[in-house]
Structures are given as structure tokens and as C-alpha cells.
Amino acid sequence: MLTIKNLHASVEGNEILKGINLVVKPGEVHAIMGPNGSGKSTLANVLAGKEDYEITDGEVTYEGQDLLEMAPEDRSRAGLFLSFQYPVEIPGVPMVNFLKAAVNEHRKFKGLEPLTAGEFLKLMREKKELVQIDTQLTNRSVNEGFSGGEKKKNEIFQMAMLEPKLAILDETDSGLDIDALRIVANGVNALRSKDNATIVVTHYQRLLDYIVPDFVHVLYNGKIVKTAGKELAFELEEKGYDWIKNGDV
Amino acid sequence: MSVVQDKIAISESYKSLFEENRELLNDGSSPLLNRMRDIAISRFAKAGVPDVKNEDYKYTSLKPAFSKIYKHYFSYREQEVDLHDVFKCDVPYLDTHLVLLVNGWYYIRNQKIGNLPTGVIVGSLQQIAYEKPELLQNYLNRQAALSEDATVALNTAFAKDGLFIYIPKNVVVEKPIQVVNLMRGNGNAFVTQRNLIIAEENSQVKLVMCDHTLSSNEFLCNTVSEVFVGEHAVLDYYTVQNQHNNTKTINSTFFRQEANSNLLTHTATLHGGLVRNNLKVTFNGEHAEANILGMSFTDKNQHVDNYTIIEHAKPNCLSNQLYKNVLDENSTGAFAGRIHVARDAQKTNAFQRNNNVLLTDSARMQTKPQLIIDADDVKCSHGATIGQIDREALFFLRSRGIGEADARLMLMNAFTYEVVQNIRVEPLRDRISELVDKRLRGDLAKCHSCNYECNS
Questions:
Q1: Which residues of B, range 390-449, sit inside 8 Å of A by Cβ?
Q2: Cβ contact (<8 Å) for A88 and B392?
Q3: For residues A170 and A85, is the Cβ–Cβ distance under 8 A?
Q4: Predicted pLDDT at B3
Q5: So what's the ipTM on this one?
Q6: Domain enclosing residue A56, as ranges
Q7: Helix or strand run (H / E) with residue B10
Q8: CA separation (Å) from A193 to A106, A216, B366?
Q9: What is the CATH number of the domain that holds A94?
Q10: Which of B260, B325, B407, B438 is least surrounded, with the fewest CB atoms within 10 Å of its CB?
């Protein structure tokens, strides 16, 4: 589904990603862990198409297409979804209008008719239950006045509405209390299938109790320095990241 | 010719125009109007056409507009077509009392305005000033005469007609009164329009003023409106400016509010070549409130300048200003807002905000807040921003599958949403929101409501 080969990316001349290699197949869950500043969020943003980064080397293939050549909206329509670490507030854009536009763009891409108002509201009701998001929130502007937890839930709600093939969750657990974490994780798990894949970017192991990964990768200094099964997460939790920083891998 | 001579030459030419047509100006006009002319023309001649050397016109020189040759109409000119056929209001579901004016004159073939409450008068300023001077004499020119703006004096010197509205004490006009100012001619024309609106104690009225052009020639419009909001009266004043880019408009509106009155003004500039809106609110009684909103959308070489003065002459009043502008291509804009809190106007609340978005590197915006506070127990604030479309928000929307153009549109709509939301007439709010969307999509490139499409 996704193949990353020797990916190098920099911001204002500073190289952040220094040769990432990663293969993600349908049905898999990959966790990317690492200390702060290792390049986790950069990787997530580069995959979603944020323009602040310069790709200096390497290639990324998604479903047979050159991902790096695609505009962010085309990546989204092709089934890639990024759950933002810091979801942006957009006063004046009502959630409903925004979601309707997004869902219908995805439908158009698939050659489907836009949803009627009734169909759309029905879909929204179903998906809202999945992430237990307050109905009041969807009547507001995008993320405006939402708490940190509500913003994260809202990201998973959007994911549920768009049903991506490849979801990248960028520190979705940060700032979530344990109850909200469970709700978010349950939402993610409910959306899993043999045809889609998830990349979970996180600093801590806790989320991985709920979203169990098939692979855990440790990203450090712009490179994946270690890959193993889910047991690696426990090891990291126990020992911290210092043994990796010290090159003791 | 030097600049100074040039300036004198323009004001001299208007002075001679005035003298040559003195009889025509007086003909058919009420003495109320005629007796103001002499002082006004000499004030205009002394001050001259405002240019950038005048602090109040620092960002908008009117000289180029006044240097051109225009036709002046000193008497009503019949239109060869029925304007009701030519102009179709593009605001469906907006149930209003409709009034047409053409080139500053009350349209003689106006259809009868149905179902106005007893005592309400909507009509020609010229006619009513002549027939019922007692209605106007305590109001006409009582605000405009205090203005130092030369264009206001010029209007007073040449004013013959315009709109007159009178809402008696305790009367509520539920349906909005929609006033459509049409510009139509076959040569470049100078339009002088004078409006007077009186809302007596405890009355309520909503006015929608729409400015349109119906022919492609150049217009220079110099409109002065005086609005009197009585004690406990509630008045909404919506302006929708949608004129072609060969139009230059100077629109000076004065509001005087008595105690406990409530005013909302909303100025939407959708199109126009050069637009200068002068807006002044004077609080003449305590516990009055004014919400003053505005927004403009410009592209090509358009220029829009909003100039406001809020005179807090009495204590315990609230004024709240919010102006937002979206500037595209090579357009330019200005906002200058002066708040004056008089010495004894304690417990004044005066707020002002001006936010602007520049869509290109060549668009320019000037913004200038001015607070003059002579009282010591007041709450005043002002803020101004000039920025670009929020890139984080743009990326977020695109990352959800919304194309760049649509995402931008969404964000521009969101930017002005706050201003639109304050419109108190619901169908009008929806309609203006729709017009804004169309404008941002570029669908309003031709004059919207005209069948001639001369500007397309």
C-alpha cells in the first residue's frame, strides 16, 4: 500500500528526515515511536503533503502512485488521512459545511453522486456515535472553542466520515485522559479492516495497549533505527529512549 | 499647471457651474434647501476637492475623479424605459417596501408602496420639503452643516432631490424599506443625492440601501444622508454597494442618536471603482448603542475607503465597530476610524476592530485607528490586522479532500462570516451571505441585477 524509500526531507536547510525506509501493507498497524525532535511529525506531515518541507531525496509510492507528486487534496481523496497533532481552529467554517464538502469531494472522486442533506445527516449521526462526540460540537465552527480532547475526538470523527485506506495518527494520544483515549482507540479499532492500514505516531506506549501494532519502529535523528513487534513498545516504556540515543541498539 | 492651481481650477469650475445654474437649482426647490446653498458653495470653494494633503483623505485623492467632465442634472430627467422592467432585485424571498431612485432623483413612476403604517412617509425630498417644510425644518442640514468635508458642502450646494423617510413616534415598520439607487445615463454623469431619514421616539425601521449602475458610462456620485434616531428608536441601515468599476462614489452618512436608541449599520461594498464611505455617529443622549459593521471585496484596481467618526458626546453609550476587507489583485483599501469620547462622557464603551486579508502581493491596505479620549472612566479598545489566508487552515481543509480553490473560498467566507452574522434581518443575512459567496467566486463580475450586462 505504502512504500517509503530513502526519504530525505528538510525545513529551511535543516535536514529532519535522513533516509526513511518503510513498507506498509493492507491490514497492518505500524507504530512509529521516538524521542521528541526525532522527525515523527515531519514524516506524518510530509506524507499528508504539507508544503513547508523540501523533499531532497527518496521516493514514496502509495497504491502504485508517486505520492510526493500529488496535491494534499488528491492524497486525501485517494484514501490517505492525517489526524493532526494540533488540530487548527477555523472560526466561521461550520463543521457541517466543511464535512459535507469533504465527503462529497471524496464521493465525486469515486464517481458517486453527492449525498442528499438527509443522507448526510444520517451518516453523521452514525459516525458521531462511534466516537461519542457531542452533537453540540458539530453545530459549531471547526474546532472553535473545543477542548484538547474534543479536538482529537473530532479528528477521529472526520476519519470515520471519510473512511480512509491509510490513516496516520500523529500523537493522537497527547493530552487525552484515559477515558478519552479509550474512546478514540475504540473508534480507530472499529474502523480497521483487512483492506486498510494505520500508522500510529506516538511518544508513549499507552495508546498501543488499545491499538495493538503489528510493527513498532523507532525513529531517531531522522532514521528508523530499530523495528520489531509490539514487545518493543514495552521495552521502550521501561528503558526510555536513552539506550537508543546512545547507539546501543 | 501647478498642483495648487489645478486644485483651485477644479473648485472654481464647480463654483461657476453653481452660479450659472443658480436659477435652475432654486427652481422647484423648497426655500429650506435653497437657503443653504450660498454658504455651502463658498465653503466648498474655500476648501477645494479633498486630496491626499488633507489628513482625512490621506489614502484617497478625489482629485482625479473631479478632474473629469460630467453632465449635471439640475432637474428630473424622465427615463425612456420603465425602471421596474430594467431593474429586477436579485434578492428573492426578501419581502420589502421597494422604492427606486434614479441618478439621485426620486423615480416618478415608483409603484405605490403598499401597506405602510399610518403616518409613515416615504417619498421625494424635493417634493416633501416643498409641501411639508415643517416636517424637515428641524432636521435638514443639522448634521451635515457641521461637517468639514468639502464634498458634503458641495452636496448641500447642489442638492435638489433624494429620499425622504419619516417614521412617526411609536410606529414600527416591520417590513424592511428597500431603497434602490439606480445610476443610468448615456454620458458621464455627476450625481448629487440628498437623503433625510427621521425615526421619531420609540419607532422602529429597517432600511436597505442598494446602489446599482445600469449603464456603462462613468458616474461620480456624491450622496449625503442624514439620519435621526429618536429616543428608544431602533434603526437598521444596510447598504449594499454594487456598482461598476467606472463609478466613483462618495457616500457620507450622518447618524444622530438620542437616548436609549439602538442603531445598526452594515455597509457591504461588493463592487465599485472608487468608494469612499464617510460615516459619522453622534450620541446625543445617554444609553444609546451603535453597532457599525462593514466589509468590502475588491480586485483589479478598485479602491475602497471607509472613514468613520464616532462622537461619544454623552455618557453611558456603547459603540462597536467591525470592518473587514478582502483585497485581491492590485486593489487598494483604507480604513480610518476616529472615536472621540467627550470630557463628561463617562462609562463610555467604544470598541473598534479592522481586519484585512490581502490575497496578492500587490494589494495594499492602509488602516488607521484614532482614539481621542477626554473622559477618565471609559472602556475603549481598537485593533487592526492585515494578513494573508491562514496557511495552516488551508492545508487542513485540503488534507480532508477539499480542493485548493474551494478551501480558499471557504476561508474567505469564514473571514467575513462574523460581519454577515450581525445582520438582523434574517432573509437579508442569508442573501448577503450568498452575494458574498458569489462575489468571492467571481460571479459578480458583471453588474448583478442589470439586464444590460454592459460591464461584462
A1: 390-393, 395-404, 406-407, 410-411, 413-418
A2: yes
A3: yes
A4: 56
A5: 0.95
A6: 2-245
A7: helix B3-20
A8: 19, 19, 56
A9: 3.40.50.300
A10: B438
